[in-house]
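Let us work through a complete example step by step.
Step 1: write down the sequence.
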Amino acid sequence: MKPVKKERPAPPPVARTRFDPSLATNLITALVFLCVGFVAGYVFKSQTTPSGADEKSNVTAAAGENSAGESTDASALPPGHPPVNTGPEVEAMEQEVASHPQDPAPPLKLANFLYDQGNFQQAITWYEKAVALDPRNVDASTDLGTCYYNVGRPDDALRQFQHSLSVQPAHQPTLFNIIVVNMEGKHDYKAAQKAYDTLYRLNPQYPKLSDLKERLDQEARGAATP
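Step 2: predict the structure and record it as tokens.
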């Protein structure tokens, strides 16, 4: 959510007997620097704000978007923008994991952070540790499956999603992900349709489900055409 910018009341006008070009030049320069500073601050904030759990669980992030259609790839910075150094944060979280080896929360926190940065391969290590410590955490399990898909491992993704459903059979983000992975990763339109039917019965209004169904029908027809 964008921050609301509060404006100060304008000062009373100052009477001038004639136009001074230097004043206009100074004013324009000040406004340019003010605007650049505001935009840079907002871009940095938008790249470092973590997504919610439901957003991460949706494999539409594989295309660089979350379930709201917003960019989730922190590497997609504007041209010329300096890289964001996340090393100290990662190191601090790794130390927290080492200090609490039987607690699933620290590795999950680190995995979520790496996921939000678009570092899916690194996130896998920590999601696997978190899920091993807490196998019934459906969100962590589905996020792990999403990471597998994002690094080109659709079979592992589907196996992980099945684990999620074994814990919570009606977990809607997992069902949505199964549709996507079967359709785009495996081209198994029958399995995708089966997952769609299940999700549609649970929640016909699930976000982007109708769009996904349209794509599924188009791709299934294309595959059936000689």
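Step 3: interpret the result. The chain is about 65% helix and 0% strand.
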